[in-house]
Specification:
- The mean pLDDT is 96.
- The protein has a single domain (2-279), classed as TIM Barrel (Alpha-Beta Barrel), CATH 3.20.20.
- Helix 6 (183-192) packs across helix 7 (206-215).
- The strands form 2 sheets. Strands 1-2-3-5-8-9-10-11 form an 8-stranded parallel β-barrel, surrounded by 5 helices. A two-stranded antiparallel sheet has the order 6-7.
- It contains 9 helices and 11 strands.
- 40% of the residues lie in helices and 17% in strands.
- The protein is an alpha/beta fold.
Length: 280
């Protein structure tokens, strides 16, 4: 099972600090690092039903941010968790992701979702109500643009007439989907995803996902599955979470720092979590 780590959004205002964390994770042997984002931020308290990180913390644009981290690290992979795909023009994401993959020597994985913030959708000229259908078409178009020199595609949300990126990534960029465990959403992951990265415990739903993958005509192990654990409390609890995930068929475990940790303390906690899990 691959072990990753995440960068807390509160750390992102200090680029030097997050660079040091990413380099520390790289040196400690983590397989990947993740980070979340929005494009726009709102006033604290505007969305009381959502945690602050969902709307009011300053963010980084993830493809730009990970390009920066790619130049500061050597081997660790980078995975967006998540990039809100329907907010972006698909061809622009394809171009930026392909360039980032090349700059990082193939260390980039695109984790995507659709989010909920209608004000952000409106500000970026996108229709919240069309986001699910557009999202599915975007995944199809991205794969075409990353694998074919020129693409002709006429869909409900895209119109390509013999156009391409000009320079393809050396290998298709893995597409992770971050969303909940309903039957409809698991079906989407099964048909279109290379990985599933929910923000809930995936273990109770892995059997259902595997069945949906088979029903979609894909090999059962075609979709990787990421769980998460916070490096606070007792190490035996972290190990138990990792063991349960692995035995259920999970393939990735993302280690989160404690909620109030500074970058330095968070890095130390995540390294301790990795060491405990890897040595069990």
């Amino acid at each position: 099972m691959k072990l990753g780590a995440t960068l807390r959004l509160e750390w992102l205002t200090d680029l030097g600090a997050v660079r040091a964390v990413a380099q520390g994770l790289d040196e400690a042997g983590f397989d990947y690092v993740t980070c979340a984002s929005h494009i726009l931020t709102a006033a604290p308290g505007r969305y009381p039903d959502y945690p602050a990180y969902a709307s009011s913390i300053p963010y980084r644009e993830l493809l730009v941010f990970f390009t920066y981290l790619a130049t500061c690290t050597r081997r660790i992979r980078m995975r967006t968790d998540i990039l809100i795909l329907p907010l972006y023009p698909t061809a622009l994401i394809a171009r930026q992701a392909a360039d980032l993959s090349e700059i990082s020597n193939g260390r980039f994985e695109l984790g995507v979702g659709i989010s909920w913030n209608e004000a952000e959708y409106n500000a970026l000229g996108q229709d919240l109500r069309a986001r699910a259908a557009r999202f599915e078409e975007q995944l199809e178009v991205l794969r075409l643009l990353w694998t074919q020199p020129r693409v002709t595609f006429h869909g409900a949300h895209h119109d390509f007439d013999d156009l391409g990126l000009g320079r393809l990534p050396a290998a298709p960029i893995p597409l992770w989907i971050g969303q909940g465990p309903t039957e409809k959403l698991l079906g989407r992951v099964a048909r279109l995803g290379d990985g599933w990265m929910p923000n809930i415990d995936p273990v109770p739903h892995i059997g259902e996902l595997r069945a949906a993958v088979r029903a979609a005509g894909r090999p059962q192990d075609a979709v990787a599955i990421a769980g998460r654990v916070t490096a606070s409390g007792e190490p035996q609890d972290w190990v138990a979470t990792a063991t349960r995930l692995r035995e259920a068929g999970g393939t990735n475990l993302t280690i989160w720092p404690p909620g109030d940790a500074s970058p330095e303390a968070g890095l130390a906690a995540m390294i301790a979590g990795r060491e405990a899990i890897a040595s069990a």
